[in-house]
Amino acid sequence: MSVSEDAPVRVAMLGGTFDPVHIGHLRSAVELHETLELERVHMVPAHVPPHREAPGVTADERLRMLELGIGDTPGLVADGRELARSGPSYSVDTLTSLRRELGSQARLVMALGQDAFLKLASWHDPERLFELAHLVVIERPDHPASPDQELRALIEGREVVDRRDLFARPAGGLLRLRLPSRMAISATDLRRRLYAGRSVRYLLPSSVESYIVSRNLYR
Ligand code: ATP
User: Fold this and answer.
1) Which residues form the Cytidyltransferase-like domain (predicted)?
2) Going by fewer Cβ within 10 Å, which terminus of the chain is more open, N or C?
3) ipTM
4) Ligand 1 pocket test: which of 22, 23, 115 has the largest number of ligand atoms within 8 Å of its C-beta?
């Protein structure tokens, strides 16, 4: 089944530090694109405060690795809008900017992994996120957990089970998604491997691995 031509456009944002981007991010984005029949998935690297940055890896390099990792993958976009602004951006700002471009009827999705979802109540203006977008939570095999009281209150009445119900409205719903290829890959583990001189082969695209080696990153 495909989305009819006059149906409102469906677009997702997947934010993250992408430090570095790996197959868990990219395969999730591809499957999200396919499963929800999206026009495109904007992968948006976050501005990271200098004291939290991986030593020697700049925001431009994180964006470049994302571009290399995406390559010509249909439907995925490396979106540097948070880096173009000075200072950090909140997800509500980024969603506001996407909403402005797409119009009020577009179906906008903010996708995030389960680990990020569990911290949602502590984000800036979490209620506003639901005014701007639907939330789609991607299950991660290495991050089991259940929402605390505060998060349960925030999402109360928003959850839909059938993805068709999600797109009946432009925003405001919550869907948990178990994608076919769930992968226990994290950037933290990749950075550890790189610092220790261990192999990262097949955990990230070879184009990204070559870039890391050529720039001597994560050493
Ligand atoms: P780190 O280990 O440095 O915290 P990470 O691997 O979790 O990094 P992020 O850049 O923080 O990567 O992740 C961006 C988004 O992608 C987050 O919403 C995160 O939950 C999600 N994500 C990361 N890895 C996976 C994975 N293997 N499967 C599904 N979602 C993932």
Assistant:
1) 13-193
2) N
3) 0.97
4) 115
